[in-house]
UniProtKB/TrEMBL annotation:
Organism per entry: Desulfovibrio legallii
Protein origin, superkingdom: Bacteria
InterPro entries referenced in this protein's UniProt entry, alphabetically: P-loop_NTPase, Shikimate/glucono_kinase, Shikimate_kinase/TSH1
Family annotation (CDD domains): SK (cd00464)
Gene Ontology MF annotations: ATP binding; shikimate kinase activity
Pfam family, one: SKI
Annotated GO biological process: amino acid biosynthetic process; aromatic amino acid family biosynthetic process
Name by which UniProt lists this protein: Shikimate kinase
Amino acid sequence: MAGAGKTTVGSALAQELDWAFVDSDHLIEAVYGARLQDITDALGKRAFLDAEATVVCAIRAQRTVIATGGSVVYRPAAMAHLASLGPLVFLDVPFQLIEERVARNPERGIAMNPGESLRDIFDERQALYSRYARVHCPALESPQACARWIRANLPPHSLDPRG
């Protein structure tokens, strides 16, 4: 979810693992040459989700922590591709904290239909995040503490340098 700390915790996890780090939102901005919010506004939710899935499905990476946009969970093909690259981690953050963080950064790109509220999206996505994630991190501590928690709770084979 927007404001969960995906980029911050992902970057800390990449450092913890000594791996590369990729933020798929930045890749989308690079492809379109525009800010994420401008892209979502121009395309609309459905077309943005399709574009996001196309970019995510093009990622070919090993030993890389990938922070995705929270809306990637709407496209099963994107989620299957990400799962093929490694375990999916859900940063479990309560709605009140998400709401506070999003309010501090209103320019953050969030794929929403007209009339949808942040709460609507949060509730809708929670079930999807839970369905796809192999690891559920209670992300209430510092990004570094979350990164250490995730590393300790990843399936051991996912840290194997051969795959």
